[in-house]
Design goal:
The protein is mainly alpha-helical. Helix content is 48%, strand content 11%. The chain has two domains: 10-55; 58-130, no CATH class.
Length: 146
């Protein structure tokens, strides 16, 4: 979901209200990953509403594993994105930087491109990788060990 706000600055109050009143209930959000740079008030406000907020620093260590996961999904043609035009534009502007230890992270291919949609997708993949599945009913009831 993309919402343009009026004026030359981002209206964080409008965004918070949209998250709390529309997005959270509609998609049953369990948690939101966020880049801590400049969002302290927004994060605090969403936490006060009851949302679980998880910091995602924008560095090679946090990007590597989920970027590899995204690359695997794309190359195996298992990523379904519905051809969304904004995500396609962001994907076209994204390249992957490889460090000396073969860690991956997304970077802009050119100065004019935007990659926010791809970065958000990688952040979401990061949370899905780290999120432990609910235990089997048999484990909960003590009938089986994990």
């Amino acid at each position: 979901m993309i919402t343009a706000t009026e004026g030359n600055v981002t209206d964080y109050t409008l965004i918070r209200e949209q998250i709390v009143k529309e997005i959270w209930p509609r998609f049953q959000i369990k948690e939101i990953a966020f880049d801590p740079y400049g969002v302290t008030e927004m994060v605090s406000s969403l936490m006060e509403e009851g949302l679980t907020m998880v910091e995602f620093r924008q560095n090679i260590q946090t990007f590597n594993e989920p970027t590899q996961k995204l690359e695997a999904l794309v190359t195996s043609r298992r990523l379904e994105h519905g051809g969304h035009p904004v995500l396609r534009a962001h994907a076209a502007a994204t390249t992957v930087k490889l460090d000396a230890n073969e860690n991956l992270r997304p970077v802009k291919e050119r100065d004019t491109g935007r990659i926010d949609g791809i970065v958000s997708l990688i952040m979401a993949l990061s949370r899905s990788i780290r999120k432990q599945p609910d235990p089997f009913v048999y484990v909960v009831r003590g009938l089986r060990e994990m």
